[in-house]
Amino acid sequence: MVATDNSIYVSDKAKAKVIKLMDEAGVANDSSYFLRVGVVGGGCSGLSYKLDFDNEVKPMDQVFEDNGLKIVTDLKSFLYLVNTELEFSDGLNGKGFYFNNPNASRSCGCGESFAV
User: Fold this and answer.
1) Which among 43, 46, 78 is positioned nearest to 63, based on CA atoms?
2) How many Cα atoms are found within 13 Å in the side-chain-facing hemisphere of 101?
3) Phi and psi of 9, rounded to 5°?
4) How far is it, in rounded angstroms, from Cα 16 to Cα 35?
5) What whole-number distance in Å separates Cα of residue 7 and Cα of residue 45?
């Protein structure tokens, strides 16, 4: 993937998993819901990723669409997430969402936290 603008990207595998999870949560058919991505303090490298479903856009939120998914993040988190791609792995070496973040200077072994 080559970033062409300042955005947040979603792989095909991650999109499929997000749609499945939205369906399980009962919000897949409600177009007001979107994927909220954020960065919070914590984790072994200092910052952790946070994913959730939401249906309320706040005044300073940044709104993106990639691969048919609406993604929203707060402005502070976006500074850490610019040009990041959300991925999903179901392999033997770890299941779950992870971020290909070009802004991270290091990340922990579990892939759930990072530093800049």
Assistant:
1) 78
2) 27
3) -115, 160
4) 13
5) 24
Residue 3 belongs to some domain of the structure: no
Its pTM stands at: 0.84
Domain that holds residue 38: 8-115
Query: In this structure, what token pair is assigned to residue 79?
Result: 């500074």
Tell me whether residue 71 is in a domain: yes
Structure confidence by residue, pLDDT tens digits, 8-45: 999 999 999 999 999 999 999 999 999 999 998 877 77
Domain count, the chain: 1
The answer to whether residue 16 sits within a structural domain is yes
CATH number of the domain that 77 lies in?
Answer: 2.60.300.12
pLDDT one-digit tens code per residue, 31-80: 999 999 999 887 777 788 899 999 999 999 999 999 999 999 999 999 99
User: Of 101, 116, 113, nearest to 45 (Cα)?
Assistant: 113
